[in-house]
Queue: 2 jobs
Job 1
Amino acid sequence: MTSVPDKTKIIFRFLPAVLLFLFATIFLYSFTDYIFFYQEKSSLFQVSFSFLKQHLDQPGGVLEYLGQLQIAFYYYPLVGALIVSLEVLLIVWLLAKIGKKLGAEQFLFMPFLIGALLFYLQTNYQYQALNNLGILVQLLLFWSLIKSKFKYQWWIVIVLPILYFLFGSYCFLLLGLSSIYFLQQKSWLKLTLSWISLAVFFWIGKEYLFFYTTDSLLVFPFLTTVIGGQVVLFGLTVLLLLLIPVFAKIRIKAIERIKIRQIKLAGFSPYLILVVLVVAAFQNIDVKSKHYFQAEKLFYEQKYDELIRYNFNEPTTNKLTLFLNNVALAETGRLGDSFFNFPQSNDGSTLFLKWQNIGQYLQFGGYYYYAIGVVNEAQRWAYEYTVIYGYTPETLKMLIKTELIKGNYKTAEKYISILDRSLFYKDDASYFRKFLNDDAAVLNDKELGRKKQQDTKFDFFVKSDTPWLNLLPVLDADSKNSVALQYELSWLMLQKDMKGIVELLPALENAGLKKIPKNVEEAVVTYKLLRVGEMPELKKLQIDPQTEQRFQRYYQIYQQNQANKRKAQIALRDFADTYWYYVFFN
Amino acid sequence: MSLRYHSICLIGLLFLFSCVSKPNGEILKNSDSVKIYPDYTEVTIPANIAPLNFLVEEEGDAYYLNISGEKAGRLAVSSRDGQFRLSEKKWKKLLGENLGAKISYLISIEKDDKWIQYPVFTNTVSAEKVDPFLYYRLLYPGYESWTELSIVQRSLESFKEKAVIQNNVVGQNCVNCHAFNNQNADDFMFHMRGNLGGTYFVEDGELKKVNMKTKEMQNGAVYPRWHPSGKYVAFSSNKVVQQFHSMENKKIEVSDLNSSLVMYDVDKNEIMQVPVDPKKQFMDTYPEWSTDGHFLYFCRAAQIAENYDYRDIKYDLYRVAFDPELRKFSEPELVFDAAAIGKSVSFPRIAPAGNVLIFTLHDYGNFSIWHKEADLYSIDLGNLQVKKCGNNSDFTESYHSWSSNSKWLVFSSKRGDGLTARPYISFIDENGVASKPFVLPQEDPGFYRDFVKTFNIPEFAKTDVDLTPGEIREAAGKEALQAQWANN
């Protein structure tokens, strides 16, 4: 039978911890799994000595390496949720232990508060694994320090330079904690020598060892970006962590006296924190990011139909999502049909990405070129991204695919070897490896073969600042390139260039299209019925009379309401997915 | 289970892995030569080179290598995976015992319990030593972007490598165009681009930062070459444009829009125009001094017009006489008319002995690293006879530099994978004939298969550059010394 004190212990110590763990896991897995998707797709951990070596040229590199290792496991979101929750739980447990060791009677409030804050910080998709990992390790070391016999606590003086090398700026947390602890213990010599030891190593490193700026040596791997810009909250959490030895000693008798049914208020505090955390965490779900990352996930998986359906059912105005959606429409031959089913930007920014040294632009801009058959340029975007931001699974796959298409098998093999050194992309590496030195296999592959055939046969200098200008030379080389044709037509629709669209109709016919795409047909009908100019002679393609009737109806409603644009817009909302609506209301 | 049991297992395992398999019993002979990577067969190597570690590209259960010297010595190595990593000490001894002679490699492979012996291949050990250091810039062969750039020093006598400069030390500025005077690290310079930009000179062991750009100059100073006296540095001053191909495997096209030559007087801190093109009719680039310092060689193409075709830009090799005392140049003269054969010249480099100039020849332009057809050619400076070097491949051969004894040439070649440049070393005999080159040896024989960075501007050096991060940071933080424009 469980005794009453044991029951109290279970209810007030273990149950909140279990609840925190369960809530954190379920919440992260069920509501914010996009965090794991984003982070996992943003780096590529490699199981190799050279990858480890890359992280040894700067203090804190090892923590960064460990963080990337943790992120690699986010490939499975449930594993990610379990790891993150376990880390938070361990931090809470360590803090409680530290408090107890330092003399606190029931030290639960601060550990749970800090745990809750760290969990809350983690609900930001940019908050990297290395943060909680770094904090956890420093607390573990601090716990070891205070558990050591007083005379053996000198180890910290010797170990601090090593810890600085391994964990970079995160070891300052340990330095701070141990300094306060030594102050409390009146161990002036240990305190002084700890600082001197670290300062001397820092100076030697700065002057002779590390080719990094002084600022970087001080703060790395901490960056505002790795905490998702949550500077105030993170700063507050670190401050609370630093003051743990102080909080452990504070006794506020007035609060300690408050009891509910003989149980001190402190015992209830974890529950209160948990309740607040649940509310705050749900409010912190980033719905826009969640939508975007789901679209990105479907895009990477080449589930284009699903992606289009998803964006149709859950409309978005995010330009990058719409750009991906347009690539999906183009790859499935529906760009000219469904272009205006989705919001479009008249500057073309939902259709193409202009060259900019911005991560997401470089990451995705190349897919437009991949779609229209300028494989060189698709590769360049992926390559430049890699040079600046490092390998990611998807950019590496793009590099492999483009090198295979180009027949550069030796270079492709290098990239495949890198993918093969990842933890969870070995199957992809094996898949790609079978194409090496086998042109026939590349040609027979559904995706690679199609892209190889589609790859432009005309050499021109790519204009990445004005991406639409690359379409005409591609079409000059291959007038049957239906993807490029759809992009050109879409661009002309955005430009409201009906003449240009009509002039492309013979090319459309030549490309083997049996029907004029819906939105394109709307532009053609407008041109025809408003008698803007001459219509070309077409052999097979015909204008659907129903489209003409729809235009007549549209035009009639428009004329009835043209005095009031707002009213007209409401009256014509059934036509919101048409070229006409775009022309009149954009 | 007991500790004893575990210990026995552990010792057994250690024994198993440390076991050296040697050919025994009946040995079959294979008449086809075995393929090794990197290809170190039939090459001439300097006596002080690091071990030529390699791997055998043939499936097998065990491998055995026996290297025997023509004069003396032997080195035997076993391997389970076909990788041969040779002992530096034993290698050095073997080469030392066989100066001017051959060493023979005999490889045996065990397959299905049978040993197969392959035909011998050899290396010739030259008594001519190579300079002990090789400097290069390591970078991703990217087109526009960079994050990590470093100028690296590699000992050619071992596998030791150290960073001399890394761009991160001053916050991702670009570092480029490192240059030595006569392979001597005492006269060393490099450019840094970015907010802490400038040209950095090592002067008496100290770093000096100079701003070369004056208001009289249209463009900044780019490709440098030291005058043998160490008093002057000639630069090209280029305006460059990058464009990207949609189809060709070349990917990038780099062209000069205009360029001219300038000269920096190190002692007087003065920069001046090299007055070879007063009417601005030409684009002059890639300066190179003759060994006696009395001639400045350079590449020259007609100044492009507005609607130019990049394929029509052809550089010829010119030279101009120079009086170092008076700082005076004469009239330029044509040395090699590359345009006449529809070609273009880049990177003229004269052997320290002064008798031979090697340049890169390609179809057009001057950015040869992206030209697959680029090859090395030599000119006998006595009779101006041009010959194609014997160390070329079907892929790019581009930047090259001489060792201080004029016996070794290091050059960038993309023959490995077509994308990344690697440093290859050739022996140049007394007739100027280049031997089959060998790639810079690495401790890990498979290194080049995985390494994705490119080796840029390989330069031999006799001495060590010893800059600390603190020194670079301090120099970068200082105000640059402004070079003064001089008319002569």
Note: Chain A touches chain B through 44 residues (CB under 8 Å).
Job 2
Amino acid sequence: MPDSPRIRLATNVLLALYAVVALLPIAWMIASSFKTDRELLDGPLFALGDAGFANYVKAFAARPFVLYLFNSIFAALVSVAITLVVGVCAAYAFAKLRNAWTEILWYAILASIMIPLEAIVIPLFLEVHSFGWQDTYAGIVIPTALNAAGIFILRQAIHAIPEELFDASRMDGASEPTIIWRVVVPIIRSNLMVVAVLTFSFSWNSYLWPLIVTTSDELRTLPLGMAAFQMTLNTRYSEIMAVSVFGTVPMALLFAFFQRYFIQSSISSAVKG
Amino acid sequence: MEGMRQRWAFYLLLPTVLLLAIFQLYPVLYAFYISFHTYDMMSPPVFVGLGNYLRLFSDTQFLNSLWVTFFYVFWTIVPVIILSFFLALAISRAGSLGGVWRLLIYLPSVLPFVSVALVWKLLYNQRGPVNDILGELGMQAIPWLTNSTWAPWALIGMSWWHATSYYTIIFLAGFLFLPKDPFEAAIIDGASRWQTLRLVTIPLMKPTIALVVVLATVNGLKAFVFQQVLTDGGPANATQILTILIYKSAFGYMEMGRASTYSIVLFTLVMLISLIQIWLIQERRNA
């Protein structure tokens, strides 16, 4: 139904109002990171303060945030790499090499996508403990690295590739790995990006598992470092905001470059939950 | 040739199967196993049969957490779903600015969860902006995070802000896939705006609505970061959702058996709701 200009204007005004609500806390976070604590608590809400980068400097002096950042990026990249490599192989088998066994296994994958990590952290911790992986990079990264939802998304994409493309390559004597690399990967490149972005943000937000499995400060990922920093005595509010902004920057950059994939990955993750 | 392909299927699936068996299937089975024992990681597990499960019914901490969880999930998802639905509907009809609104409304989802938690913790500070605004309106400051009546609402309120951003995008995807014909028919029949919404839009959007209800419920049940950072389950356990209780019982009090029993309850709730989700997706595919 075509809306009249007046209704369309009203729609846009309402959306603008909500957009302000959505953005206010973010704007306030950024503004606060440049204020002194006094300005933050008693000054006007959105004026930039006099602190300059002092809060950032102090926060970085108090804790090794660059190390936390490195740990987070490392964990996220390993998770993305494992999910893409292992995932595309599995997805190809599920989509194009089907047999009775892969069908059964497919249901197992669906079930495992549903299993909430929050409900299995205790046995997972005991298991990782018995591996001697407690408080190691392997312990932080490997148990949660494979994002099974990625397999789901990639399988859908590979499923849509017409069979003739594979037949031609097989006729030329290409092996299955060659087909995956030469035929599948180029076609589903944008789906791989979606899965990469999705897996990266899962890992970036990962909190409960690293919290349980790490004890030493050098292994903390950024979310843990940020949370621990705010619990430290004498930490200033404005410094906490500086750290919050710092944690957002990598995601914001990623979002700026890969906006399309971000929104697509949010939609795809709806199949996961 | 065919045998070759079968062998490849095996090799290609092997890494996935190993990872999932070691880090998902085994932990699930192990969780059930521990839930029938008491175990503190010092001495070997002691079998107690259904003891942990029978204790649930008189375990006031657990019953409190179950109630806190349901309260949180319910009051989070109902407003969020209604708000996201209408925001998405508005964006789909906003014309040329639609893309801009979609982008801006999505931004809270780009923030890391811990950043969101830290910002809101400060927004709810006794002398923070939320109370400043209440003061401007002539109201008393509210001890958002230190009062057991207000703290659950503080967490619910921030979830509205955070979750709406995500579910609006999901709804929007649903709106964009709606067929055009029923709406044209509604115009020809002279249906009013309200009638069109009630009789055409909502019925057509039912699968997406159902999907969002399921998603939001599962995500609500799995919430952890906000509660941990803002209140750590307090004050007086008022925000101690199941995940926080599990974490504290296992890693604070080393009661692995009891905590595993709580985990099984959470597991069962999430799996039941996820089964409904699968069924809904299947329905949609068949529709």
Note: Chain B has a mean pLDDT of 92.
